[in-house]
Amino acid sequence: MKAAIVVIAASLASGGLSAAAPDAAAIVREGNDKGAPPCIACHGAHGEGQVAGGFPRLAGLDAAYMERQMDDFASGSRDNAVMKPIASALSKEERRALARHYSGLAPPAASEPAASDELDPQGESIALRGRWEGQVPACVACHGPSGVGVGSHFPPLAAQPAGYIAAQLHAWKDGQRRNDPMGMMQHVASELDEAEIQAVAGWFAAQPAMIEEGGP
Ligand code: HEC
Ligand code: HEC
């Protein structure tokens, strides 16, 4: 009897707690009771992403940026068949807690060494200098040195899977992603041809997520 009361009291206490502040670490591992699957299934055990699936890393991304992306998946201004139902199954508080959780995790070193493929030199050129013709600005002008990201508006490109970076550029080209402030990325993406998209995605994927102290 006494033991039963203790168990009930404990479960009430934990239920009360999770209603007040969502347990992000638990949702990451187990999902929630409204149908959101565990995030680790796609975003990796430590938020490092998954190169083969083209699933982005979340570790180390800005919290306000990630929260807004989840809102945009739910509203459809960022149209993605996988993330829409997931974001919709998360409450506003859960999205905020998950964004905070992931922003506090250490990012992976780099997404993928360029494996056997040689990096196409036009990737680095577009990333660092842009292209005069078509007025493509240097990506690093907004995304920070070697694409490490700047504040809550300019997400990192460094150490994101190349497949993910390319998919986003396609999504802007096709109008599936329409959530960028002032259409900045829509312009950039519409100017890039397929070879340039692959080249620039490969270059950023191979950059380290963080600039070393004393480095550039
Ligand atoms: C079934 C696989 C899958 C699961 C499970 C999943 N995601 Fe995603 N997630 C994706 C894909 C695919 C994308 C890229 C969508 C696109 O191309 O726009 C993504 C993108 C995101 C982004 C945007 C990242 C960026 O850089 O803009 C956030 C934030 C995110 N997911 C959060 C979560 C959270 C939190 C969970 C767990 C509640 C979760 N995801 C579970 C597949 C998944
Ligand atoms: C004028 C500023 C600007 C320039 C230049 C720019 N970007 Fe962006 N980029 C943005 C903004 C702002 C976002 C975030 C959009 C949002 O809030 O959803 C973004 C997002 C992205 C994303 C999505 C990242 C993620 O986590 O989902 C990719 C990929 C990207 N940019 C690639 C590029 C590439 C490649 C170049 C160079 C060819 C480039 N960008 C140049 C402003 C810029």
Overview of this protein structure:
The chain is mainly α and 216 residues long. It has two domains: 21-103, Cytochrome c-like domain (Cytochrome Bc1 Complex, Chain D, domain 2); 121-205, Cytochrome c-like domain (Cytochrome Bc1 Complex, Chain D, domain 2), CATH 1.10.760.10. The protein contains eleven helices and no strands. The protein is globular. It binds heme C (HEC) (2 copies). One heme C binds at residues 27, 36-37, 39, 41-43, 55-56, 58, 61, 66, 69-70, 78, 80, 82-83, 86, 90, 98, 155, 167, 171.
SSE string, helices as H and strands as E: HHHHHHHHHHH
CATH topology of the largest domain: Cytochrome Bc1 Complex, Chain D, domain 2
Main sheet characteristics: none
Residue windows where pLDDT falls under 50 for at least 5 positions: 13-18
Broad structural category:
mainly alpha
Strand content: under 5%
**Corresponding CATH architecture of the largest domain:** Orthogonal Bundle
> What integer value in Å does the Rg equal?
20 Å
By CATH, the superfamily of the largest domain comes out as Cytochrome c-like domain
Number of helices: 11
Count the domains: 2
Helix residue percentage? 40-55%
Shape: globular
Mean pLDDT: 89
The CATH first-level class of the largest domain comes to: Mainly Alpha
